[in-house]
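Can't paste images in this forum, so I'm doing it all in text. The chain is below; anyone willing to post the predicted structure tokens underneath?
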Amino acid sequence: MKSAIITTCLASCVACVLAAQTSAPQGQGRGPSTPLRAGRGERPAPDPRSVGGGNCSANTYNCIDTPNPLPAPNTVWMEEMTWMDVRDAMKAGKTTVIVSTGGIEPNGPWLALGKHNYVLRANCDAIARKLGNALCSPIVPFVPEGAIEPKEGHMRTVGTISLNEATFEALLTDIAHSYKMHGFENIIFIGDSGGNQEGMKAVADKLNAQWNAKPVVAHIPEYYAYNTVAKLLVDLGATKANGPSDSLHDDPGITLNMFVTDPNSVRWEPRVKAGKATIDGFSLADKAKSLELGRKIVEMRATNTVAAIKKAMADRKKS
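Text version of the structure:
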């Protein structure tokens, strides 16, 4: 008898739980939720003014048209901005977004695995500021670095992260689509690694045709012209043409470019202490001189890339 009563009670409890789950609001994920209409079990239309991760009715800072309570920060990096900062920057004319791709790969004994990402941190910043109407998307650090299994290319070295080409192109497509939906008028791809170029071009060409240049999507191969960096250093007398080589995945140009972002990324201090602060016969020991040369590299690459971006945007709009 007692067992029957317990079984009946359990069945009733399960029925109550199922009934409660059936009547509960659907889609309660990470976004803002809206209470049901009393007694009807229907969700009212969402407030179109609700943004910022919450409900406009709950806090005015969740309303799309609420003025920014703080002054604009001195940055072009969207990851360092609030949604209000990005909104206001776009209203002020910053409707170009630069999507830069780097990598996680081996670069000899001196340079951090994120070499290309350190380079882009300095370069995208300079390019966006020189353009005047641009913001930098967070750097895409994951790119094709060689077959994952069996391991090929840079994947043979521990620490490397690689993407299949299809995954890389799908990632770029979704990033560009997101910026299109937010109203950016120009979406620019730049890549600091050779293996990134083909995928960026393929995505840019596909989307530009699909969207009829609204927005313009362009890949800028001129950004990756590392031969111009080598020539600049020769012209400045810092290195010699056909000079010595350490036969590493490293060179003075890329080391100095990284140096601008963070000397620790090239292990400057421990290398100086160990008497190892050279690459291809070039000495990094003079910190001030290295920083000055690095800034000249950034300036040149930014100037050349800005000119290429302006030309690409004009050409895309004509075609």
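The chain has a mean pLDDT of 90. The first helix runs from residue 2 to 23.
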